[in-house]
Design a protein that fits this description.
This protein is of the alpha+beta class. The protein contains five helices and twelve strands. Strands 1, 2, 3, 4, 5, 7, 10 and 12 form an eight-stranded antiparallel beta sheet that branches.
């Protein structure tokens, strides 16, 4: 760790106790702490002690349930506004830039990025913007290291199997507009989305998606803190990853 990260960690231990960052410290040891599930080997960091479960019940965590409930209740308005934006404000969308790739047939409208709300998106997607801000951002349930965006997979598009960077955040999908022929596979188990409902999964496990339908598949994706992480761990992970990104010229 850099001196800056050491200083940040020391301050967190001072506030929360000497053992508050034990799991983060284990993650940074040679070998990365606990043994990994075979389908997590592509992830860079695995925080030990979190449930090694690919699929999660979106209503199963008291911390996350208000976000899920609010998004599902807002679905009719979210879909109507997004459909209108896709038809009339296409310039608001862009190719999705994953850390591994960029795809023209995978479009995105960002609501939260770089640790802040994307104010320009309040126009084309006002309901989603407000619900996200009130229930995920203002409550600090969103992982500020990542983002929230509408993910539009065009007909015939496929997202190749891959692991995301870590397991200490978790991916929530609100199914906004789902044609027949769409699927998502996580750790070898394939499911589909139910329009108006949420899916929750650990994207440190290998996952892939495809749209074999006849119109775009649209989900609202929100990167939330894994509910089994603690407040001091979250503070430490933000300090750690932010410093790494700065050293790599990506922050």
């Amino acid at each position: 760790m850099t001196p800056e990260t050491e200083t940040a960690f020391a301050a967190i231990r001072g506030d929360y106790g000497t053992d508050s960052l034990r799991r983060v410290e284990r993650m940074l040891e040679p070998g990365g702490g606990d043994p990994r599930h075979p389908l997590q080997k592509g992830a860079k960091w695995i925080l030990p002690g979190l449930s090694a479960t690919p699929w999660h019940d979106p209503h199963g965590y008291p911390e996350l349930a208000p976000v899920v409930d609010a998004l599902e209740a807002a679905h009719p308005a979210v879909k109507e506004e997004l459909t209108a934006a896709w038809a009339g404000r296409r310039e608001a969308f862009s190719d999705y830039e994953h850390y591994l790739t960029r795809q023209e047939d995978w479009q995105a409208l960002y609501l939260y990025r770089g640790g802040i709300m994307v104010e320009e998106s309040a126009g084309p997607a006002p309901t989603a913007y407000q619900v996200l801000k009130e229930f995920a951002v203002d409550t600090e349930k969103i992982c500020p290291l990542l983002e929230s965006h509408f993910s539009i997979l065009l007909p015939g598009a496929a997202i190749a199997p891959h692991c995301d960077l870590w397991n200490f955040s978790i991916n929530l999908h609100l199914a906004v507009d789902i044609p027949d022929g769409c699927s998502i596979t996580v750790a070898g188990e394939t499911r589909s989305w139910r329009e108006g409902k949420c899916l929750l999964f650990d994207y440190s496990f290998e996952h892939a998606a495809r749209n074999d339908g006849e119109r775009p598949r649209t989900c609202l994706l929100v990167d939330l803190w894994h509910p089994e992480t603690t407040v001091p761990e979250r503070l430490a992970l933000v300090a750690l990853i932010t410093e790494i990104r700065q050293l790599m010229g990506d922050g």
